[in-house]
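Whiteboard transcription, Tuesday session. T.W. wrote the structure tokens on the left side:
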């Protein structure tokens, strides 16, 4: 009786020349279509540019030096054939019971088929940073080969032997090498570990467990899974079909995104997911059991669309300056989160007026008022009662606005919500009179209802003298007794006839 390991994955090791690896992963180079691609989000995380290019490309130089010297050739490049990924996804599709899960898998299959049609034969699981920064940059003459000893501060050298003649070089560019020297480096062999068997989930787990770079955080692990929210956000942040420019346009101008919120840690993805979480249930702290729940696909899709509409609202009509090289629009991620909450108050109707995203015409006016509100709260002289002395320093008192900015626990977040609701209530009237928003045809009455209202009375409701309506001469309008945005409805009992002249002249 044979015993096997369930769900095991197997790799076939193969040697590949460095130049061939470069060609396989370089679309369009020497008329060769890229055969090795990446599908970041499902099978990869973000490129670790800062890690690899820190301290004047120190890590890049170290890897390239060790590669040429021969000590790095055992670092394998893990790839999986695109057909194996498709086969695994088709198997998952057959086993899927929930319709929402089926839709996500089907969408992913279609995307991968598109990659295949464009020439991709393999997905690179592990090694994208090594391929992208040292190898590609060197062969494309964007990286000079040299490595400085961190102790002696002298450049290390690589020794060559040509016709029994020994010589060394401390630094060089690929283009300046002789043909023999080029061939020597091009022919360096590295290991290709080609996936042969296994399911897509096992390959993803293996990628996370064996990744040779910086460790993955919990969020990176969660969002690499094949789930609706990951598919939506990854697609919107990609450069291909489904890209949503508003996301990156705004997020590039948010200050102090570091740690788990750094772009290379999928920080953009995390911020979007947090806002989706807030739209779903009023929380910012991610609950993976909620956002990764495929039975909630429709709700997640709706919340994603709301978040997308928020970002589009910020970028419409060029009210903000999103151009490169200018100061951050949002000083911190907290200001972005808080402003999302401001718009949510307007959308919820809790301030007395319920708006759609399209109703908001001057979003920057709202933000300028909010920024002023926040700035005044931070002024220790103007708001001394919200600060206390602690060891000779003024610090925010517990349960105050500024105090609540350093945490997203539910009880702390509620303090933010309360302050934001009060802020909106304090400004709603000036925004309405200043035409900051304009309610759309949600409050327009159907012709049939309009006619019924007009036929029920001959009186112009807003006329000072209560003069009768002339249905054949007057420009008759139908208005709401209780305004639509303040809780009124389109029910016929809440509708009143008037003329356009009276409606314009009246004082509401």
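and on the right, the sequence the group agreed on:
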């Amino acid at each position: 009786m044979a015993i096997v390991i369930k769900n095991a994955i197997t790799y076939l090791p193969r040697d590949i020349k460095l130049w061939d690896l470069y060609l396989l992963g370089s679309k369009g180079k020497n008329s060769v279509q890229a055969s090795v691609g990446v599908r970041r989000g499902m099978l990869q995380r973000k490129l670790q540019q800062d890690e690899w290019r820190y301290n004047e490309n120190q890590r890049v130089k170290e890897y390239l030096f060790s590669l040429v010297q021969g000590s790095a050739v055992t670092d394998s490049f893990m790839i999986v054939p695109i057909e194996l990924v498709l086969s695994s996804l088709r198997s998952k599709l057959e086993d899927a019971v929930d319709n929402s899960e089926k839709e996500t898998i089907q969408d992913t299959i279609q995307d991968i088929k598109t990659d295949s049609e464009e020439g991709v034969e393999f997905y690179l699981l592990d090694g994208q940073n090594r391929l992208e920064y040292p190898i590609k940059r060197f062969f494309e003459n964007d990286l000079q080969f040299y490595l400085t000893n961190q102790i002696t501060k002298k450049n290390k050298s690589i020794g060559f032997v040509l016709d029994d003649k020994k010589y060394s070089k401390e630094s060089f560019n690929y283009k300046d090498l002789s043909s023999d020297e080029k061939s020597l480096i091009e022919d360096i062999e590295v290991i290709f570990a080609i996936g042969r068997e296994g399911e897509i989930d096992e390959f993803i787990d293996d990628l996370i467990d064996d990744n040779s770079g910086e460790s993955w955080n919990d969020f990176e692990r969660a969002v690499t899974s094949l789930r609706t929210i990951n598919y939506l956000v990854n697609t919107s942040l990609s450069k291909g079909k489904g890209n949503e420019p508003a996301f990156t346009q705004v997020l590039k101008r948010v200050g102090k995104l570091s740690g788990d919120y750094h772009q290379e840690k999928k920080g953009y993805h995390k911020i979007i997911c947090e806002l989706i979480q807030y739209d779903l249930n009023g929380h910012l702290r991610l609950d993976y059991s909620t956002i990764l729940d495929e039975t909630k696909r429709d709700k997640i899709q709706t919340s994603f669309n709301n978040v997308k509409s928020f970002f589009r609202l910020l970028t419409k009509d060029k009210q903000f300056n999103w151009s490169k090289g200018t100061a951050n629009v949002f000083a911190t991620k907290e200001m972005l989160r808080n402003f999302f909450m401001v718009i949510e108050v307007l959308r919820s109707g809790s301030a007395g007026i319920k708006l759609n995203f399209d109703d908001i015409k001057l979003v920057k006016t709202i933000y300028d008022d909010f920024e002023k509100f926040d700035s005044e709260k931070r002024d220790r002289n103007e708001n001394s009662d919200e600060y206390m002395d602690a060891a000779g320093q003024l610090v925010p008192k517990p349960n105050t606005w500024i105090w609540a900015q350093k945490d997203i626990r539910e009880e702390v977040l509620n303090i933010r919500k309360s302050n934001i609701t009060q802020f909106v209530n304090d400004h709603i009237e000036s925004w309405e009179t200043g035409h900051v928003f304009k309610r759309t045809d949600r409050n327009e009455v159907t012709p049939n209802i309009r006619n019924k209202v007009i036929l029920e009375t001959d009186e112009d409701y807003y006329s000072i003298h209560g003069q009768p309506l002339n249905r054949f001469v007057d420009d008759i309008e139908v208005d709401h007794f209780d305004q639509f945005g303040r809780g009124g409805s389109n029910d016929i009992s809440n509708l009143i006839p008037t003329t356009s002249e009276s409606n314009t002249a009246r004082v509401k």
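Someone added at the bottom: The first strand starts at residue 10 and ends at 17.
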